[in-house]
Amino acid sequence: MERSPNPELACPVAPVVDIVFSRWTTPILWALHEYGRQRFGELERLLPTITPKVLTQRLRQLERDGLVARTYHAEMPPRAEYEITPLGASLGPLFAQLATWADTGLPEVERARQAYDSH
């Protein structure tokens, strides 16, 4: 009996897509890359549609993955700051390529959708 192929072997970028492009990960990384070190409340203002619970979950996952570093300051009131790590920053060229593609690719996608939907 032949085994079904491992999707990660069939597409070696699948694990990267799972890490980087899960919901809210890209906007958080983009914000930290563009604006530098941020406190939780600052990130909330930069990403107004994310809930505090989801922002907390995403930041913890990004910290676990080594893409974001959290610095805790034991002062009154206590505060934490988040910044992109060198590993996270190494995704910058990927994001830049995607932004470039978006400029030309998304209008083509929209035209294709309109043509498809008009059938």
TrEMBL record:
Superkingdom, natural source: Bacteria
Residue ranges of domain HTH hxlR-type in the record: 11-110
A molecular-function term among this protein's GO annotations: DNA binding
Family matches, as SUPFAM superfamilies: Winged helix' DNA-binding domain (SSF46785)
Record-linked Gene3D superfamilies: Winged helix-like DNA-binding domain superfamily/Winged helix DNA-binding domain
Record key words, sorted: DNA-binding, Transcription, Transcription regulation
Pfam families: HxlR
Keyword Zinc: no
Alphabetical list of InterPro entries matching this protein: HTH_HxlR, WH-like_DNA-bd_sf, WH_DNA-bd_sf
PANTHER family attached to this UniProt entry: HTH-TYPE TRANSCRIPTIONAL REGULATOR YODB, TRANSCRIPTIONAL REGULATOR, MARR FAMILY
Protein name, as recorded: DNA-binding transcriptional regulator, HxlR family
